[in-house]
Specification:
Number of helices of chain B: 22
Strand content of chain A: 15-25%
Number of strands of chain A: 12
Distance between the termini of chain B: 48 Å
Strand content of chain B: 15-25%
CATH topology of the largest domain in chain B: Pyruvate-ferredoxin Oxidoreductase, domain 3
Helix content of chain B: 25-40%
CATH superfamily of the largest domain in chain B: Pyruvate-ferredoxin oxidoreductase, PFOR, domain III
Structural class of chain B: alpha/beta
Shape of chain B: globular
Strand order of the largest sheet of chain B: 11-10-12-13-15-14-20
Radius of gyration of chain A: 22 Å
Number of helices of chain A: 10
Number of strands of chain B: 22
Oligomer: heterodimer
CATH architecture of the largest domain in chain B: 3-Layer(aba) Sandwich
Largest interface: A-B, 58 and 70 residues
CATH superfamily of one domain in chain A: Thiamin diphosphate (ThDP)-binding fold, Pyr/PP domains
Order of helices and strands of chain A: HEEHEHHEHEHEHEEEEHEHHE
Largest sheet of chain A: 8 strands, mixed
Distance between the termini of chain A: 63 Å
Largest sheet of chain B: 7 strands, mixed
Number of domains of chain B: 3
Radius of gyration of chain B: 27 Å
């Protein structure tokens, strides 16, 4: 069979996102990840919850399940455990994952189920027409925060590290190549691949990530991480990250010794946690790319069957035998 | 031998054990249940747990109980008022003596009646001496003293010796009820002896000595004037096992997996009184049964729906408040039209309610507790052993009609136990014909349409992920009646809603016609469903024996109703529905058949007693 292309993963359904929505670029990246994974389309399943992004499965020529609000992680967990041969993707939004579905989100990460989880973060509820989400910024205006948000925002990747994540990455809709790199690495990662991709919502939160996407200044507020490379960023590569006590700070490349510039190590969990939590309001860039990846931890779905095999080897009962166990007597 | 204790033949005996929670009431109860069953009696039992794990010792709140009925005939319930109460301390006597049959026997530990213990439960004077228990035949045995004496030569702390008083009591009861002592001695060896899974030789020896001391105490004391014997019950031949409803449900899940060829899967979250089901099923890894204990009730059902979508035979297990949480996801299984079995071990509600007490008050929740027009079949188990059948049938219907099915059991039958005739796996119905996944090779030239239906069952064509070339998208939005694509077309929604309703109604084709206990037409019909079966059956049998114009029927399926139900209801002057709720089935019967059903409600955390049904029927007969 000829190798599949991105086009092969497009379903005939008409895509109904708003023109200019960040989701288009992300869908393209997910299709690229599927191509790179090399699985036939009928061995791929996508599960989504509720929200704009959750219409995603309808547009994909794979098995697709558009389910209920917030529960995609739990449903996908059952699907993956029931048939680990499938490549299972979850497409979710910031409302779906971090508000109503927060509980399932953190526990799916904790179990390290081998799912490919794409959290499209536009920091707003789009489908219900513009209410703030747990990822909205302090002071953000929305229909339910006409005077500004007074909830502190959640950092999904930082939360993920707290739950023992084995793969976290962050992309930006405006850098499609990077998103493709992330989905390609993510689908190949053996474990829960947590991929947060920042997206713009042209209607209800236009400029959601303007600080990062601005043509002139955006590069000064984001850093694209490359494993083994020095953490240098900025429009003119003039900025870098250096150690600051137990933390990280930004510095001018010109002001520091070359050896003091931190080198990215995607297997370093402590570093990963720090990078995941970097915010511009603390004078740090938003980390993009593969922030942390360690495929050495066993997955839940793998352990389910290892345990079944072990108990089979040890006890090896039949249903009939178990039914006849305990205190029995014959009449 | 105490020649003065005369051996009386009896038909049935109701025994209740009460004592401190954690003092082994369930163990001793199960022990006597097994002993009676092994000896050929029919048995039915009902545990009664307090909701606190270990309330302070010696308090009324900490009293745990276990009631059982053993008979030389088919026994349908754990019995009405106990003939014999074994109450291990003053709290237990205070808590339970009022339930005992007038003149019934109360066996207690005389050593436990210390001033401090009596004060704790508000006894101003010793009830064993002050005449307040005069209406009963009180046997105050100094159990602690006797057990410590019997174990005097054993090198163990007194606390460990005192734990042997249960087996001492078993010795007394074994003598009192004329049972074969070897059955208990063998049990002790099996459980603690050298060949046990975890041999505890000292415990085996101590319990053997305590048991023998109890036997000897019965034989030598002049305390008992009578002892009782009963013949074996007429029971269908076969291999039997004493089983709780929750354990029977767990076994049915494994059996349904084996008979369908699908991997059985349980997505769940612990909740009283359903947790034992999950405990037991979690041991079945060698049977290939996957259990996922999820982060909450919603995740429990959601991962089960995910597993169902992948083609596993999926179950979720819960109790009332858990079912409330699962509501939306149950609707998801319904609109996706995938098989899923939801086992709800009902408990007292609303909300947290009475977690350890039984009730049947989730019928209307099961029926209507989802948004939209969202019917699903509901089967109700009528005894601990019947939980096996109910769960197995639930799986069959779920597969055959591609629908979620609710199995209702309750705390009483989930935790209660009775003998179960162990089926032969090969004799159970083959479920593979109902699996029937869509395979493109069976339909050459056809394009797969996920909502194309079998005209007989309205089950949709179902290709699970991994099926070559059948990738498709489905979801919880309303779908086109054929392609499954999202559809907001008004008429399509009307058709789909009708179809989903009709599909559940078609389940009636699978239900056996109701059989009437008694005359086909009569003055009064008593309708039981689920856990009320035993008390109603026992009551109606007795009323019929007395020549009363009464018949009975039992509903296994609470939705849809069996086809001949309407006809049967119309042939009786009056219809009575006893229920452990405020009249939920009554409401459904009135609505469906326009029959003036009378409701007998009881919500006291306790199943019906036969006499309660008999009294009500007599009242309706004007007697």
């Amino acid at each position: 069979m000829a190798e599949l292309t991105k086009k092969d993963f497009a379903s005939p359904a008409e895509v109904k996102w708003c023109p200019g929505c960040g989701d288009y670029a992300i869908m393209n990246a997910v299709r690229e990840g599927m191509v790179q994974a090399g699985k036939p389309r009928d061995e791929v399943a996508i599960v989504s919850g509720i929200g704009c992004s959750s219409r995603f499965p309808y547009y994909m020529e794979t098995y697709g399940f558009h389910t209920i609000h917030g529960r995609a992680a739990a449903i996908a967990s059952g699907l993956k455990v029931a048939n680990p041969k499938l490549d299972v993707w979850v497409i979710s939004g910031d409302g779906d994952s971090t508000a109503i579905g927060g509980n399932h989100f953190i526990h799916a990460i904790r179990r390290n189920i081998n799912l490919n989880y794409v959290l499209i973060n536009n920091k707003i509820y789009g489908l219900t027409k513009g209410q703030y989400s747990p990822c909205s910024e302090m002071g953000q205006y929305s229909k339910t925060s006409p005077y500004g948000v007074i909830d502190y925002p959640m950092a999904p990747l930082k939360a993920a590290m707290g739950m023992g994540a084995t793969f976290i990455a962050r992309g930006l809709d405006a850098i499609p190549k990077l998103s493709e790199e992330i989905t390609t690495r993510g689908v190949k990662h053996n474990g829960f691949s947590m991929m947060e991709i920042y997206a713009n919502c042209v209607i209800y939160n236009d400029g959601a990530h303007k600080a990062l996407t601005d043509k002139e200044t955006g590069a000064n507020h984001r850093i694209i991480l490359r494993n083994g490379e020095k953490m240098i960023y900025g429009a003119d590569n003039q900025l870098c990250l250096v150690q600051d006590g137990f933390g990280i700070k930004s510095a001018n490349v010109a002001d520091v010794a070359e050896g003091d510039i931190l080198v990215h190590n995607e297997k370093d969990a402590a570093l990963g946690a720090l990078l995941a939590g970097m915010r511009p309001d603390a004078g740090l860039p938003i980390a993009l790319g593969i922030i942390y990846a360690d495929g050495s931890k066993k997955t839940y779905d793998q352990m389910v069957y290892e345990q079944i095999d072990a108990v089979k080897a040890k006890r090896g009962r039949t249903v009939q035998k178990v039914m006849e166990e305990g205190h029995t007597w014959t009449v | 031998m105490a020649e003065n204790a005369k051996l009386t033949k009896t038909e049935q005996i109701v025994v209740k054990f009460t004592g401190d929670s954690g003092d082994g009431m369930q163990l001793i109860g199960n022990q006597l249940t097994a002993l009676a069953a092994l000896d050929g009696n029919d048995v039915n039992s009902l545990p009664d747990y307090p909701s606190e794990i270990r309330a302070p010792a010696g308090t009324i709140a900490g009293v745990s109980g276990f009631q059982m009925c053993l008979g030389d005939h088919k026994v349908y319930t754990a019995g009405d008022a106990p003939d014999v109460l074994v109450a291990f301390n003053p709290a237990a006597v205070k808590h339970s003596s009022k339930f005992v049959k007038p003149g019934g026997m109360i066996i207690t530990n005389a050593d436990s009646f210390t001033e401090k213990a009596m004060e704790k439960v508000g006894y101003k004077s010793n009830p064993l001496e002050d005449g307040s228990l005069a209406g009963y035949d009180v046997k105050a045995i100094p159990m602690t003293t006797l057990v410590r004496e019997a174990l005097a030569d054993m090198d163990m702390p007194n606390a460990a010796k005192d734990r042997c008083k249960n087996f001492f009591t078993m010795g007394v009861l074994c003598w009192l009820f004329d049972k074969d002592k070897n059955l208990v001695l063998n049990f002790i060896q099996e459980k603690f002896g050298p060949k046990a899974k975890k041999p505890l030789l000292q415990v085996a020896e101590a319990n053997t000595k305590a048991f023998t001391a109890g036997l000897n105490y019965g034989e030598t004391t002049i305390m008992f004037q009578e002892r009782y014997t009963m013949g074996a019950a007429q029971i269908e031949k076969g291999l039997y096992r004493n089983i709780t409803g929750n354990d029977a449900s767990a076994l049915a899940i494994a059996a349904a997996g084996a008979k369908s060829g699908l991997q059985p899967f349980i997505g769940s979250y612990p909740i009283t009184p359903a947790t034992d089901l999950l405990h037991y099923a979690s041991e079945f890894k060698d049977l290939g049964l996957v259990t996922m204990q999820m982060e909450d009730e919603i995740a429990g059902i959601c991962c089960a729906v995910g597993a169902a979508c992948a083609g596993n035979l999926a179950f979720t297990t819960t109790s009332g408040p858990g079912l409330a949480l699962k509501t939306e996801a149950a609707g998801m299984a319904l609109i996706l039209e995938v098989p899923l079995v939801i086992v709800n071990v009902q408990r007292g509600g609303p909300c947290t309610g009475l977690p350890t007490k039984t009730e049947q008050s989730d019928l209307l929740q099961s029926m209507f507790g989802r948004n939209g027009d969202s019917y699903m079949p509901i089967i109700a188990a009528n005894s601990p052993a019947d939980c096996f059948n109910a769960c197995f049938q639930g799986a069959k219907i779920a597969l055959k009609y591609r629908t979620p099915v609710i199995v209702l059991t309750d705390g009483y039958i989930g935790q209660g136990s009775c003998p179960w005739k162990v089926p032969k796996l090969e004799e159970l119905e083959d479920l593979t014909p109902y699996v029937n996944f869509y395979k493109p090779e069976d339909h050459p030239g056809e394009t797969y349409q996920p909502y194309k239906r079998n005209p007989e069952t309205l089950a949709r064509d179902w290709a699970i992920p991994g099926t070559k070339g059948c990738q498709h998208r489905i979801g919880t939005l309303e779908k086109d009646a054929l392609t499954g694509a999202v559809s907001h077309d008004p008429m399509n929604h009307h058709i789909m809603t009708e179809t989903r309703l009709k599909k559940v109604e078609l389940v009636a084709n699978d239900l056996p016609a109701l059989e009437i206990n008694g005359k086909e037409s009569n003055k009064i019909l008593v309708v039981s469903w689920g856990g009320t079966y035993g008390a109603v059956k026992g009551a109606v049998d007795r009323l019929i024996a007395e020549g009363k114009p009464v018949s009975g029927i039992n509903l296994s399926w609470a939705w849809p109703f069996p086809k001949n139900l309407g006809d049967i209801l119309s042939r009786f002057d009056k219809v009575l529905v006893p229920e452990l709720n405020m009249g939920q089935l009554s409401l459904m019967l009135r609505a469906k058949y326009l029959v003036d059903v009378q409701s007998l409600s009881k919500v006291q955390g306790d199943p019906f007693r036969e006499y309660e049904v008999i009294d009500k029927v007599n009242e309706m007969l004007g007697e």
